[in-house]
Design brief:
- The chain has 26 helices and 20 strands.
- The protein is α/β, with parallel strands linked by helices.
- Strands 2, 3, 4, 5, 6, 7, 8, 9 and 10 form a 9-stranded parallel β-sheet that branches. Strands 11-14-17-16-15-18 form a 6-stranded antiparallel barrel. It has a two-stranded antiparallel sheet with strand order 12-13.
- A hairpin with a 7-residue loop joins strand 16 and strand 17.
- Helix 1 runs antiparallel to helix 3, helix 3 packs across helix 10 and helix 6 packs antiparallel against helix 7.
- The relative contact order is 0.08.
- It binds pyridoxal-5'-phosphate.
- Pyridoxal-5'-phosphate binds next to helix 24 and strand 10.
Length: 695
């Protein structure tokens, strides 16, 4: 994994080729070779350059699929916004050209684009949801449907002259063309390329290159032939185009490492701005009387447009506010695949009768509650638990669905918010239940039962009170639960207490059922209940710490599970200096060098959630795969490490405070033991200032 070096010099091919594709689009709209050779110009702009837009669709599909289509909604909204801006940007030219009728406006806005190049945006807005839907069908059926749509599109594009000669098809296509002007749109063109980007195979470089050359040759023959036959209604779609794209994409993927976001923004800007530049170049050429060089001469025209677009795009990029690199100082790195693995492992242990309720309180134990809930939601997890109302609202606002149970107290006066966000509230005692019921809202609740911990919940023995809650108007009791206080204690005493609590809980449950009430979902165990016992009789298990792949303490458990830590805590080495023997460092000069010491300063401190005396407690960090000791006293934003044993250490190196680096690991349990607490506290005390970065 080695966080020691972060490569930034790579120019990943996929993002870089976006710029090439944008230049090809400029070529389509300027015809660089038109005054040299019309045939060559046709090949360049109507055959070769047709790789450009499908390429944009493919990279989009590729990156979305890498995240299991998670960002689809966000990308859709962003595209809609960019489209809106672009529509406004070209409104003056629309109006100058005479505008459209209201029906035309609608048609252009929804399908064709309001300016000739803007069709790309409605194509994404229509094609993306379609591709997402098809992706749910699975690879084979999804691609088959998309290919079928593409074929229909072909019939209205390059093959129109041949296809419309067939009986019935002319009527079909005439019908289509009353709805939109071309078939190269979000319905027929985009879905196939989104899905090919998502599922494209990746071959070796030589094979891909040969495939690209051959398929491009085939497409050239196809395009030039159809052009010569005069059957093209439009010239965006060819039979060989998808094949070319798959080879091209495979070739680029082989060279792609990381991301080069500059290429993305640059390509988008070139795409957006170049038609304006065409207008400006023409206008300027006329004003200064240089039509001969910049209008009649197609190459001059092309380069003038390209140059002015490039300058404009570079200006826009320079004005764009820069975002801080989240890994510049100290950060939390989270691993989605570990989280999914843990959820599956835990669910397998719970068995088919009992579902995992993911406890995501305290911002998902420091992992980012929204990220955790979304990731697990995609895995089919439908039950979540938080500590308080505000945490529940954060999840709902982020679009998390399913049950969200608030484990803690919420004042009854907040009932409107509980109802508004469909949150399930824990009833902490009878008075609370009555107050909630009196608010005049229909509320979902789970009934807390106190079986000996004496924290929240109604007394397990008070059957009358328990039943009274079920009888209260407007409260829908959808569950009943208790909490164990010695589930982690394997001593005879601990086991006896747990057994007693379990018996009391099920006695209370049976009492309610005997009175003819439906308890709803019954749950008792948290992580240690599952690690040390059985969940039989329960519908849910409320799992927090195990989900994050960590044990609360390093001690043994009865039935361990193979769980992987999800969060790593990392920071940067700010500098390395050499201290002579006898010199001190830090507040109170708490560190004294005994020998010539290479002292490293790491950009993380007690304000990030680490204890001030971690050095004294035996703290270590990993640097270039090696363990080095924390020395001296922690500052608010820095700490000291002795890096004498790592001569290669240098400023900018990644430092792992908790997690893995190479073969070395510092575990949460180890750190919790040093701090004389449990991992839960270490995790939940990490500062919110630490950005969360997905691995
Ligand atoms: C926090 C909490 C849990 C989760 O506990 P873990 O030990 O982290 O699994 C479960 N139930 C209740 C009531 C809690 O407050």
């Amino acid at each position: 994994m080695g966080v020691g070096t972060v490569k930034r010099r790579d120019i990943p091919a996929l993002d870089g080729f976006r710029l090439v594709a944008a230049v090809l689009v400029v070529a389509i709209h300027t015809g660089p070779l038109a005054s040299v050779s019309p045939g060559a110009d046709f090949w360049l702009t109507r055959v070769l350059a047709r790789l450009a837009v499908p390429f944009f669709f493919m990279v989009t599909g590729h990156f979305l699929a890498q995240k299991d289509w998670q960002g689809t909604g966000r990308l859709w909204r962003r595209t809609a916004l960019v489209y809106l801006v672009a529509v406004l940007l070209y409104l003056p030219l629309n109006l100058y050209n005479g505008g459209f009728s209201p029906v035309e406006w609608l048609q252009k806005l929804l399908m064709d684009g309001t300016f000739y190049h803007l069709w790309y945006f409605p194509a994404v807005l229509v094609g993306l949801p379609l591709a997402w839907g098809l992706s749910r069908l699975g690879k084979g059926p999804g691609l088959a449907v998309a290919a079928l749509l593409y074929l229909v599109g072909l019939g209205g594009d390059s093959y129109y002259g041949l296809v419309s000669a067939l009986p019935g098809l002319d009527v079909f296509y005439d019908g289509l063309f009353t709805l939109f002007a071309y078939t190269r749109n979000g319905l027929f063109l985009a879905p196939l390329f989104f899905l090919l980007g998502a599922w494209a195979p990746s071959w070796g470089g030589k094979f891909s290159l040969a495939g690209l050359v051959l398929s491009l040759a085939a497409m050239s023959v196809e395009g030039l032939g159809l052009h010569a036959m005069g059957v093209q209604r439009h010239d965006s779609m060819y039979i060989f185009l998808p094949l070319c794209m798959v080879f091209l994409f495979s070739l680029l993927q082989g060279k792609n490492r990381g991301r080069w976001t500059w290429g993305r923004d640059g390509a988008l800007l070139v795409y957006l701005l170049h038609p304006w530049c065409i207008v400006l170049v023409r206008g300027a050429a006329k004003v200064v009387g240089l039509e001969k060089f910049f209008i009649q001469n197609s190459l001059g025209h092309f380069f003038a447009v390209l140059l002015s677009t490039g300058i404009l795009a570079a200006l826009c990029l320079a004005l764009k506010p820069q975002k801080a690199d989240p890994t510049a100082r100290a950060w939390r790195e989270v691993d989605g695949s570990a989280l999914c693995h843990n959820a599956q492992t835990i669910q397998a242990r719970l068995g088919p009768e009992c579902r995992l309720m993911a406890v995501v309180k305290v911002d998902g134990y420091g992992h980012g509650a929204v990220w955790v809930a979304r990731t697990l939601g995609r895995q089919g997890v439908r039950h979540f638990a938080v500590a308080c109302l505000a945490e529940g609202i954060v999840l709902r606002r982020a679009g998390v669905r399913g049950t969200i149970l608030i484990l803690g107290y919420t004042p009854a006066a907040e009932a409107p918010l509980l109802a508004r966000w469909r949150l399930t509230q824990t009833v902490v005692d009878l008075g609370h239940a009555k107050a909630l019921s009196a608010q005049g809202r229909r509320l979902r609740v789970h009934l807390g039962v106190d079986t000996g911990m004496h924290r929240l919940g109604l007394d397990w023995e008070d059957a009358a009170a328990l039943l009274e809650v079920f009888a209260l108007p407007r409260l829908r009791v959808e569950g009943m639960f208790s909490h164990l206080c010695l589930a982690d204690d394997l001593s005879p005493h601990g086991r006896k207490v747990t057994q007693g609590q379990t018996q009391r809980f099920f006695q209370a449950v049976e009492g309610v059922r005997a009175a003819g009430r439906d308890t709803g979902l019954v749950h008792l165990h948290a992580s240690y209940g599952v690690l040390n016992g059985s969940v039989s009789g329960c519908d849910l298990a409320r799992i927090g710490i195990s989900l994050y792949g960590v044990q609360s303490e390093s001690g043994p458990v009865e039935r361990p599970m193979d769980l992987w830590p999800v969060l790593s805590l990392r920071a940067r080495l700010a500098l390395v200096r050499t201290l002579e023997p006898g010199e001190g460092a830090g507040y109170g000069l708490a560190f004294h060098s005994q020998r010539p010491t290479r002292l490293g300063v790491v950009a993380i401190g007690y304000a990030d959630g680490l204890p001030r005396d971690w050095g004294k407690r035996g703290g270590h960090v990993l640097l270039r795969g090696q363990r080095v000791p924390v020395v001296g006293r922690l500052c608010m934003d820095q700490l000291f490490v002795d890096v004498t044993a790592v001569p290669a250490a240098q400023a900018g190196d990644g430092v792992t405070l908790i997690g893995r680096d190479g073969t070395e690991e510092i575990s949460w349990e180890e750190v919790a033991d040093q701090w004389e607490t449990i991992s839960n506290e270490v995790l939940t005390k990490l500062s919110h200032r630490l950005p969360i970065v997905e691995k």
